[in-house]
Write a structure and sequence with these properties.
- The chain contains seven helices and four strands.
- It is mainly alpha-helical and 187 residues long.
- The protein folds into two domains: 33 residues; 120 residues, Cytochrome Bc1 Complex, Chain D, domain 2 (Orthogonal Bundle), CATH 1.10.760.10.
- The radius of gyration is 17 Å and the shape is globular.
- Bound molecules: heme C.
- Heme C binds next to helix 3, helix 4, helix 5 and helix 6.
Length: 187
C-alpha cells in the first residue's frame, strides 16, 4: 500500500488513497492477481530495467536537447508538455505543472536514463546509445516540475540535504547556468 501511495504522490503528483481504502485494496488485489502462479524470491524476465552506467565524460545538456528534439518532441511536445486528446493526456508531459514531481524516482538522471534506454522512443526501445540516454535524461530533468511534496520548512536547500543528496544524478537544489533548479512549477 505504501509503495502504491508513493506512485500517486510522486509519479502522478496527486493525492494517495488511504492505505485501508477500497481503492487501495482493489489495486493491491489486482497486483496479486496479475502475479498468479509467478514464483516468489526470483527475478522474473522483463521485470524493471537494467542500470545504464554513467558515461565516462558525464552528460551534456546541449546534446540532450538535440536528441530530444529529434526523437522525443514528436510525442512529448517541443516544450515537454505532452499531448492531450479530448482533455486527457495521451502522451505524458515530461516537465511543467502536469509532469511527475521532484519527489518521483524519474527525476534522477540515472533512473530516467535507464527507463529511457529500455523503453523509449516508444516503439523502438534500445535504439539510443548509453550516452544519448544520459544526455536526454539530463535535458528532461533540468526543467521545472511540481515541487517535492516532502518540502522541508519551505526550503529547497533543506529538502535537498534531506532527500536529494545524491549529487551528480540529481539536479534538485543545484545551480544550472546560474539558475536554481527545484523551485517547482504549478501543481
Ligand atoms: C511514439 C511516441 C513517443 C516517443 C517518440 C517517445 N515517447 Fe516517451 N512516452 C510515450 C508514452 C505513450 C509514454 C507513457 C507510456 C509508457 O510509459 O510506456 C511515455 C513515457 C515516457 C516517460 C515516463 C514519463 C513519466 O511520467 O513517468 C519518459 C521519461 C519518456 N517517455 C521519455 C522519452 C524520451 C526521452 C524520448 C525520446 C528519446 C521519448 N520518450 C520518445 C510516448 C513516446
Amino acid at each position: 500500500a505504501e509503495r502504491i501511495q508513493g506512485c500517486f504522490q510522486f509519479s502522478m503528483n496527486g493525492k494517495p488513497p488511504a492505505a485501508d481504502s477500497p481503492q487501495m485494496t482493489a489495486l493491491s488485489v489486482y497486483a496479486y492477481w496479475l502475479s498468479t502462479k509467478a514464483p516468489t524470491g526470483v527475478e522474473i524476465a522483463g521485470r524493471g530495467y537494467p542500470d545504464v552506467p554513467q558515461p565516462k565524460g558525464g552528460y551534456d545538456f546541449k546534446r540532450g536537447e538535440a536528441v530530444y528534439q529529434a526523437q522525443c518532441a514528436i510525442c512529448h511536445g517541443d516544450n515537454g508538455e505532452g499531448q492531450k486528446v479530448a482533455g486527457d493526456y495521451v502522451m505524458p508531459p515530461l516537465w511543467g505543472k502536469d509532469s511527475y514531481n521532484w519527489g518521483a524516482g524519474m527525476h534522477r538522471i540515472n533512473t530516467a536514463a535507464s527507463f529511457i534506454k529500455y523503453n523509449m522512443p516508444l516503439g523502438k526501445p534500445g535504439s539510443l546509445s548509453d550516452q544519448q540516454a544520459w544526455d536526454v535524461a539530463a535535458w528532461v530533468n533540468r526543467h521545472e516540475r511540481p515541487q517535492d511534496p516532502r518540502l522541508v520548512e519551505g526550503s529547497i536547500e533543506k529538502t535537498r540535504l534531506k532527500f536529494h543528496a545524491n549529487d551528480g544524478v540529481n539536479l534538485y537544489g543545484q545551480q544550472v547556468d546560474g539558475v536554481l533548479i527545484g523551485r517547482g512549477s504549478g501543481s
